[in-house]
């Protein structure tokens, strides 16, 4: 079965992709009749060396993303994973020559088709009297024994584009650029690893990987690597890659040792999430610095992909100050990252967290009657929520991601752990504030944020008074905060429905002669009824609002949880004879 691709046609996808890049970048132009993109300011290159590169499509942003001042003059693109046509390469050479450049350097990745086609175009151009030279880049560090075909050209080629581009922009001659580029290429290595294959539009995946396997040392066209290894953590995979790249027995190794200064490139092969890419970058930096390697620069992103392959490659380039100046030189190429021109190693990566303002002393004794009562109430709430975990998750699966019970259980366990550390504050305001901080940190999800908001706001009226009227005002303040930031209203089929019902009943506490338990009992009954009523409501907020009301035939899990919390509070107070 062929993979799904968002294309207009299999045959025309390479042309369409290049046309899209040019259409969105006024600095580029297409060469009519050819799959060639060039700088739109070619006339400004008169008297300078032109740089052309290219290869098969499917490696985006390479190579067209690296056209610009300070990098490539132009590129020639083949069909997906196919070397470009000789005629198009020759047309690009002629175009830059006719613009008045003093010579052209072809930067070619080491693949047979690219070498042949670029080489033939070079010979034809030279026969026309055009000064053209070619460098072949092979930076693959996968093979421990040198192959006759040499090292494959991988993502390190992008660094060659940058170095050569900076030299050409500085006005250096063709032969001097070649000499320096070849020296840089010898100090560089790249190794890739993949969690999946890729598929050319209209075709099946190029290879299959078992669920528990990753491919080490693969190429950028879906070629199999040097070996398959068991799936492991990012740290373990990165360590394996760096060990392989720098092993003294590997003829294609990068001679990195303690004290070496390197440019690190962490390249997404196309389908890796940004989350995973950041984890790999962190692992690579920690691993290298742990070996005493100085990371002068770190480039993290997608530079040379293999369609949608879920994988990453690491490139190491030994770099001194003169080479770093070329890496840091300005460029207008859209795919080159804007990175600080300072060393990664030695930079302070964290700063102390701000100190919270000191709290007013708690006048009530911790561990006293009020503190013990609060602890028993909280224990009852935790027991209740833990017992509801599965049923709340089941309710949530109809309209959310099925984790409402898990989220509330996480909160319950966090509170239990907090209670084990010592008695809770006796002051109601401090108690609610402490619970707010705890839930915001430990509960997670929108529920954690909403409960945190509620408790933070509810604590404020209790700083001055703690009578029943103050508790009613605290409920009002919490509800106001939830509505202000959560944007839900009563009747929107959310946890607010149950809490709102409680708040309405607790208004009775504001009147003289009100009793604690009778009012709270009525509030709990109203909360339960409100939670049940959400069964027939149309969702107006939260994830459920994106789902047809016809599919929502169960009560809202957040409302059920809120009602259960107040029932647990009531039961705990009744059990203590309050």
Automatic annotation (TrEMBL):
The gene is TKFC. Substrate binds at residues 56-59, 109, 114. Coiled coil: none annotated. One of its GO terms (biological process) is negative regulation of MDA-5 signaling pathway. Gene3D superfamilies: 1.25.40.340, Dihydroxyacetone kinase, domain 1 (3.40.50.10440), Dihydroxyacetone kinase, domain 2 (3.30.1180.20). InterPro entries: DhaK_ATP, DhaK_dom, DhaL_dom, DhaL_dom_sf, Dihydroxyacetone_Kinase. Transmembrane segments: none annotated. Homodimer. Interacts with IFIH1 (via the CARD domains), the interaction is inhibited by viral infection. The active site is at residue 221. GO terms for cellular component: cytosol. It catalyses: dihydroxyacetone + ATP = dihydroxyacetone phosphate + ADP + H(+); FAD = riboflavin cyclic-4',5'-phosphate + AMP + H(+); D-glyceraldehyde + ATP = D-glyceraldehyde 3-phosphate + ADP + H(+). This is Triokinase/FMN cyclase. Catalyzes both the phosphorylation of dihydroxyacetone and of glyceraldehyde, and the splitting of ribonucleoside diphosphate-X compounds among which FAD is the best substrate. Represses IFIH1-mediated cellular antiviral response. Residues 9-336 form the DhaK domain.
